[in-house]
C-alpha cells in the first residue's frame, strides 16, 4: 500500500469542500469519458438491435468501453494523490456502479412491480452467488487495507469496516448454502438453480427460521425476518456506499487541514506516487 | 450535528419504529359480551375423568382408517385429501368421529369410550369435506359432505339411533368443496356458506359456461321452505371457510380462504346485503385453512391462515422444495396482498389487521393443511397444531413415492405474543396429514387430536401431557332452530385472565370441530364466572363453575 520513496513529495490537498467530487471528476479526461460512453452505448445499441442480445450484454459493453478511460483516470489519481486515494477512487466508482445495479433491481421490484426473479437489474448473469461472494470479499479486503495500511481512520471508516464484515458474512453464508443445495440438487438429478436463496437476514433466512432466534427480540424486528432478499442486499449496499462516501469525505477533507505549528501538513502523511 | 449525534438520532428513530410495531396490535379489542338480555339456564355438571396416564407427551393411536391407499398414483388435486368431523352424533356424551375419504365411502367411528370405536360405513361416495351440524334443528347432528367429483352436496339426516338417511338440502345447488354452518342473519336458523374449488372442477367439466354458472362462494339463507342462494362471487378456490366475528358486532362474518391467485375474502352483513371488506394487509397465497382465537387472553381475536412454506431450511429440504418453488413463484402486484407463507393476523386499527406471523414464529410450517388452536397443555393459552406434507406425482416426481415428507408442527402458546415449538409433545408425525380436529375423546379434560392422513391410516393423538386443569361446556338450546347454539361466544373469567371461545360448525381444512368447548387453565387459577352470549345476543352467567367438569348449559 505504501509507496516507498526516499523523500515523499507531499500530495496536493483538495481545494473543494466536496473533495469526493474533485477526486471523481474525470478532469482532463472528460472528453474521453464522453466518447467512451457514446461508443459503448452505440455498440450496445448495435448489439441489441442486430444480434438481439439481452440487456446485460449491452450493460457489459458500456462498462467494457469505459475501462480504458478508467485506467487512465485512476493512473492520474495515483500520480496526483497517491496510491491510497487512487484506491479510494476505484472503490467509490466500482461500489457506486454496483449500488446502481441494486438500485435498478429495487426500482424494478418496488416501482415496476416485477417479480423477484424478474428484478434482475442491468447485469443479471452477474447476480450470482459466486460473483457477489468475490465482490464482497474484495470490498472487505480493500476496506481493511485502507484502514490499516492506508491509515484511512475515522469513525465512518470503522463503521464501514463493520458493515463490510457483516455483508461479506452474509454472502459467505449464502455461497456455502448455494454450494450445499447445489450438491443436493445434483444428487436428486435436478437442474433447478439454487441462486438467490435466503441468507442470514430476511424472509426465510436464518434469523427468521432458526430455533436459536425463536422467541427472541430478533423476531420483533420486521425487516430482519421478513425482508425479501432483493431488499436485504439493496440496503447492505446502500449503507455500505453511504459509509464509503462518508469515510472518504472525512479522510479527504483531513488532507486539507492546515498543519499545526511545527507539524508537517496532514497531506504529507499521504503516500505519494513515485514520480 | 456530529457523528455520535447522528447515530443517536438514528437509534431513536429505530426504537420508535420498534415501539410502533410492537404496539400495532392494540387497535381493536373485541367487546366483552355485557349487553343483551339475561336468560336463565339450567346447569348439569359432570365430573371429568381423571387422566389415565401422564407421560408429558401425546401417544399415537392408529385408527386403521385408510384414505387414498387404493389410488395407484396421486396427482393434484386428489392430493388434497379430505377431512374429519368430531361431534356427538348419538347424544351419549362422547364425541364421535366421521371421516371423509377420497377412495372409498365415509365412515363413522362411534366412540365407545377409552379410545375404542365401532365402525359404521355411511355411504359409498368419495368425499372431501365432512360437515356436522344440526341443520334442521331437531336436536340431532346431521352430516353433509362435499365430493371429489361433480355431485351436489350430500346430506345425511340424523334419524337417531345411529341411522342416517340420505336426504337433500333444497336450494343448495352450487358446486361445493368447503362448507360452514352458522346463523348469519340472526333469524335463529343455521345458514350455509359454501365455496367451490374451480381448479379441480375444470378437470371434470368441459363446459366452462356451465362451470361459471354453478361455482363460486355462496351464502344460503335457510328458511322453512329450504335454502335461498346468494352467490357472493363466482371466482372461488375455496379450501376453508371461517364464520367469525371480525368487526366486534357479535355477528359472524364470512371469511373464505382461497387457493392460488383467488384472494381470501371477507364479507359482513350490512343490513340485508353482504358487503365485501378488505381488512387484511397481507394474506396467504394458497390458503389451506383458517383458524382464530384469542392467543394472549387480551380480548383481541387473532386470525391464522396456513400456506405452503418450508419450516426446515436445511440444504436437503431446500433442494427438494426448489422445483415447486420455481413453479409457484410469488406474484408481485400492488393490488395483491398474498404471500406464500402462513399469516397470523392481529388487529392493527379499527377494521384492519396486520400479520405478525414472523414475530409469533409461525410463518412457515411446511406444506400445511389443517391448522387448529387449542389449549393442549391446559395452561390457559391457546396452542397451535398444523398438519402438513404433500403427495403429488406432478409436483414431487423427484422424491420417493412422490411424497414430500414433513413433520407436523406443534407450537406452545405463551400468551406473550409468541409461540414456541413443542417437539417434546411428540406430535411431529410424518404422515401426510390433511383434515384435523381437536376434541376430548375420553373426557379427561385434555384435548386429543384426530388426523385424517392421506395414503396412511388416520390417527388419534391421545393427550397425555401433564399439569393444568380444564372446564368443558356443552351449550343446549332446545326448542330453538339452533339447538347446539352454533355461533355462541363464551368467556371464562378466571383469576389468571379471561379465556374466550366460540361454538362452531366448521373447522380447519375440510373438517368440523366439535360443538363442545374446552377451556384449559393453570391448576392454581380460580374460576370466577362463565359468561355465555347466545347466538341471539342473550346472556347467561354461571358463577364460579367447578374445575374439571363438563357443564351442560341448557337455555
What keywords describe this structure?
heterodimer, A: 275 residues, mainly alpha, 63% helix, globular, disordered N terminus, disordered C terminus, B: 555 residues, mainly beta, 5-stranded antiparallel sheet, 4-stranded mixed sheet
The radius of gyration over CA of chain A amounts to 22 Å
Strand content of chain B: 35-45%
Unreliable stretches of chain A:
2-7, 263-275
Class by alpha and beta content of chain A: mainly alpha
Strand content of the residues of chain A, in percent?
A: under 5%
What is the chains' assembly state? heterodimer
How does the overall form of chain B come out from the CA principal axes?
globular
Largest interface by residue count? A-B, 37 and 35 residues
Number of strands of chain B: 41
**CA-CA gap between termini of chain B:** 71 Å
Number of helices of chain B: 4
* Cα distance spanning the termini of chain A: 16 Å
Shape of chain A: globular
User: Whole-number average pLDDT of chain B?
Assistant: 92
Tally the helices of chain A.
9
Q: Strand order within the widest sheet of chain B?
A: 22-26-27-30-31
Order of helices and strands of chain A: HHHHHHHHH
Q: How helix-rich are the residues of chain B, as a percent range?
A: under 10%
Major sheet details of chain B: 5 strands, antiparallel
Low-confidence stretches of chain B: 6-13, 15-31
| Computed structural class of chain B | mainly beta
